[in-house]
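Q: Can someone sanity-check these two? First one:
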Amino acid sequence: MASIFTCNISPYVALNSGNKPRFGVRAQSLGGGDSTVLSSDEIVVNGTSFVGPKEKNGALIDGGSGEKVKNGTLIDGGKNGRLKPTIEKKWVKDAVFKDLELLWDDGHGTKTVKDYLDGAKEIIKPDGGPPRWFCPAECGKPLKDSPVLLFLPGLDGVGLGLALHHKALGKAFEVRCLHIPVYDRTTFEGLVKIVEETVRLEHASSPNKPIYLVGESFGACLALAVAARNPKIDLVLILVNPATSFSRSQLPLLPILEALPDGLHDVFPYLVGFVTGNPVKMAMANIEYKLPPRLQFQQLYHNLTALLPSVSVLSDIIPKETLIWRLKLLKSAAAYANSRLHAVKAEVLVLASGNDNLLPSKDEAHRLKSSLKNCKVRFFKDNGHSMLMEDGLNLLTIIKGTCKYRRSRRLDLVSDFLPPSMSEFKCAFDEVTGLFRLATCSAVFSTLDDGKIVKGLAGVPDEGPVLFIGYHMLMGLEIYSLVDEFLREKNIMVRGVAHPDLFSEIMEGSSTEFSVSDWMKVMGAVPVTGSNLFKLLSKKSHVLLYPGGQREALHYKGEAYKLIWPDQPEFVRMAARFGATIVPFGTVGEDDIAELALDYHDLMKIPILNDFARDLMSKSSRVRDESKGEVASTDLFIPGLLPKIPGRFYFLFGKPIKTKGMKEMLEDKENAKQLYLHVKSEVQNSIAYLLKKREEDPYRSIIDRTIYRAFYSPLPEVPAFDP
């Protein structure tokens, strides 16, 4: 049976270290029979002595707690023998974090595969012990009420496959990693029982929380097997290049390995290393995106030269006999998991590599999506088999962007939201939308309480709740710049309420890559519903709402800068209920970057394209009923655009309108309508102001801005007109 090992040792939990850890350790065996009697002040883990409670005849004696171990299960003797998990829960009880700070440090880009190899040297030293769980100290203390995440390793069995992700995941989850010792020969069914026992204990401890199983390659088969055997437990499976496709692998590793002379086995780790991963992407994991190419190359060269000598440890991680055993184990694991796919009821997210030279992961991802009842797929075309060790992938970001992170049985995109980290901010706005933002170079203005218009966001309240009401430009192109400006200048997270289709199967069917729509969810977008708006305002958030919605963002020819709003004052009473400050704003610039060549009416006249548009509309959800007027139109389509030499985006945030203390007054329909019309008028005035003033901007054209940057770099922004 497995043993449970929980401690706080940096940088990794050392299972066989001869040094005493700096913090307390708790270790328990789940095997049967009596345990060795230890002294009153120490316990022994794999031959190492640590300070701890007494243990006698299988019972842990810890003061007056009354806890005993019976038949491998920790029992609370003072509470009618209630079942308690043997995994240490101290971290959760001591956790003081309720919320993460905006742009927090997730440690992404500070570790490489070399850190994994260095950690593996310590953890693989043979001790004759069984498979066991450990908690990486780098994970630290999680947020309050965080769910448990169990990592199930690939063929290496080390359990450090999340080494590049420990710090980030440790904030959102209680992370446990399974370690399978090098010379352990536990069968697949035995490993399934070990994981299953832990899952059931965790479920008994917190029945309303989901349990996450992150399985890499072989570990994915293990996760599927456990899920199939426990359909009533709330599980979320994250499967990374699942080895359920092992029988279709193009690389016959087992015959090659069995025929390989013993003298050549030392060369085998290098071959496997290059087959299973992309060494260049592994070496780039800690290289800053914005570094000049020369410095990037120097850092890459340094990382590669440091990495190659460490690869030899692979022959110690998986000796020839162990590798042969585990390949046979993998064959049985794939067969076991595939035969039980029909029984899997859990949520599943499959992450598949495009350059996997070991397994046909892309095809397998599509097969699993069609075979499993609740499965999403994300495809990473440039990554190899060991994608968790490579550059360009942040596991927590993927979990958030696919709406898989939750702390209870039901997903709540408001209360379960984790603010973006600094690395997510840089990736989203420098790498994903960086060129677009550079081309449009937003100029932002706001209005002070005295009516004066100033450059920047000084006129926007720092304290929420704040409700931004504005014009939705063509295809919502202004959103990326708006959210970015608030994060950079005011360190404020603007939560946008978006069309429900952004969160529906329509988006899942159109793309399986991690896309801009996923990044919008990472940045806090939620479906536009009354309950979500209620929750956001009650949390004093800064909320972005477009009354014109989809109809305004997908307007027809000749409707640029026309407000297409409903007749009813939908948002006024909600704002007054929470005393929110309404900030009307206008934005212009869509006609400076593209010309609308084909609108909905044009597309419906073109064969094939009209069928595509009708298919989209048939799948689209309706946000408003027809009584709302023209704005209720559900003409969902992708407009045809002719690009222009980019001009510039302009934003003007109007004078804040305070609703605090106006709740009773705005319950009167006429008063609410008057305020609604006032907000609409302010948005129209802001648009008119910007359309006029942009003619005075000497840097409206990208050509002029490029010349300016060439002379005045590295100034962070390009000036615009004087307000």
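And here is the second, same format, sequence then tokens:
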Amino acid sequence: ADDGLNRFLQTLTFLQECLLCNRHFCSEHAQPFDFPAGALPDNVSRAYICITCRPQAEHIAADHKDCLRQTRQIRALAQRQKALQTGCHHQSRPETTRFCIECDVASSGSCEVCGLTLCPLHAELHPPDAGKARRLSVCFDSECRSYASARAAACTAVRTARAGFYSACLSAATPRLGISGPPATLEEAVDCAVCGLVFTKLPGSLRHHCRGCGRSLCAVCLCGVAGCLVNVARCPHKARLYDKEERICKDCLPLAAARVQAKAVTMGIVDIACQFAEHCLRVSAFLDDPAAVPLYEANNVDTVQEKLWRAGGFAVEGARRAAPLLSLPWALGVRAVDVVWNYGQYGLLGFLLREEIMQGIKTLLSLSSALQDIPPRDLVVGILYLSAEQRKALRDAPEENRRLASQVGKPVPPDLLQALISMALIGTYAPYHETPCEVQRFALQQNWRLVTERLCESWKHKPAWALFISCEHRTAAISIRGTDVEQSRGGDLFTDFDAVPAKYETSDGCATLVAHSGILAAALALESELRPTLRTLATSGYRLILTGHSLGGAVAALLTWLLRHGTGGERLPLGFEGQAFGIGYSTPSVVDRKTAEEMKPFFTSVVNSMDVVPRLCKGTLMQLSSEIRACAEESGAALDEDVQHYVERLTTVWAPRFRDGTPLRDPNPKPRERGHSGSQVPEERDQEVWTHEISENVDVMQDLYVPGNVVWIHRVCGHLEAALVPCGIKPLRRLVLDKRMFADHASQSVYQALLATQSRQPSRSDVTWQRFADAGERCPCCGSRYEWMNTARSGRMRCHAMTNCRKCGLVVCLGCANTRRSIPELCLESARVCDRCAWRCDDRSLQALPAIFHSLAAQNSQS
């Protein structure tokens, strides 16, 4: 009984009530059952169900799950439809339930399209080929996948279109925006637009922006290389689009560079147009009322740059002046280092030749590839002895220039010579001054008015110029400056060295010419710049004179040709072409021979004596190279002899030289007047210096010549004469290595030569020079050998120690011709004369000396 009671009590304690049938069962016949959330009232989720009611409970749970799933799917369908309507801006509302709809596993993730709660097994990132930040976590439903793909594609398309818009602005593809398009708006994306890298604050994943298209990019995609990450300051992927240099992506960099270049070109065109308008407006205002145009004023502001420039000049000048105070070895060392530093391997010639010839050699080497092909030793030897041979040939035929000018040329008309002198200030001197105020000062002194100019700006193919007007003579002169390395910052040199012959033909095909390519480009640019100004002057009845020195003279020649024979835009208006004339001083060879002859009616060129610039062309340079090679081959023995002389003098520690002869009695008490039989050169003598033909490898028809009428100023027995000669005369087609080859090119030298030619009056008192070949071995003044001062004493070098006295014409040594005196009867202000002529006494005055003293005594007694 006790055991039965105990079992009964235990049964009452563990009985459970079935939720469905409300009967009590023991634990063996009633088990707990988990219902889905919301299936039972009062949020009951766990209850006991008997074995009999368990199928019914499972059916209730399944029905509740199906109902809940349908509800969630209906909600998800509504979310999908809303996403399709909203587009890329749709944001899903996730479900409140924490169980996966597929497997009832607790999860915190959800589909970003429909909002269904999903576990990691039933969710995926789609589309897989998009960037990480542009992929969505979606369910396996096809609509959600399609939406994710469409959204990623749309975002990519929007970013691409946005970047393409600003790229089009860079490339000026949008007509309304043009070059000055709006700056790109920087997008604030979370991932790279190219590789999809998600931006963080860690190095290597920082966000950068392209200032061209505005895209958000990583560092590697911005520049295309990883090296720019190390040194951002020196990153080459930069462009100055606006006010400062900014980083540009590799795709926009070519467009940005094109935009920067286009902007620079546009601004240049605008600036040039403003300048053109300013020039034309000043000229028009001057023609209306000359007093209304103000004069140029001086700028007296002393900048820091000018102070530093002056300080540097003082230092250089001080060093140069202190060099002579050094001892002889130090002075020679400084001089040698200076020459070698300035002239390279050819600086060793500085001990044998003059500095002027060294400068000429350096320029010739830069122009001629034929000279550069010569071995250095042959070049040094050839130039050394060729200059001596040319000097001897010229002095053996002192009147050959006059004979040749009389045969093939004619005298210069006095009116033309006076016109050349009158225009020399405008053409050769005034344009080289730095400030317009200084140029204006010289112009006003000669009754010219500086109206407009571009003197402070010159560069390649853009030479400086100034416009002068004389209302009294109804003349406008355009002066074009020659080569000025400092003021043009080297731009004029690029124009000079662009020396390829180029053919130019007018648009109507009526006129053609072959010209120096660099100077032709400069003439075309200057014509377009001055076109409205020149037309205004021509239609107002002003005569146009285009002039210049050196490079300026060549540009003036081609510009005159364009104004007369150019196309419709370049030629002056119909009926006004004949008002353009030109004068060139030291004009280079710039046109072919046919054009040079055709320019005679309207252009005149002045060639001064030994000036090398008008003689520089392909033919003369090739001829010079062949002469140097031939002379080097023939001068081997003379070189060995001169080297031995240098070695001997070095062993004596450069001992001074002394005369080794006794002065002879005056062999010629009177000057050697013209017609003296002992020194007259037969006219039929054919001198080698003038008969050397141009190399056969040169196309004479394509070679360049001095344009127009050529006024050749040449030396005859120490004085200057002028003649109008053809452009193909042989002295103008050969380079002579002379110390005056560059000195005669200077503007002051040309002007002085014109004045000397004008003041020269031929008379019977002209002195005929003695030929070097007839001079013998010893100087007639000191009785010593001519080369007593020289270290090199070979026969080929003797002529460098010989010169002619301008008074008597005899050949003397350089030591006896250090004095300069004026010779009024020969119209020479300062000429080299020998010691005998410098201190010559009159025998008649010596004989009359007693009578002179007697007359003085008589005058004193009477007083």
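A (reply): Looked at the second one. Residues 604 and 633 are 41 Å apart (CA to CA). The mean pLDDT is 79.
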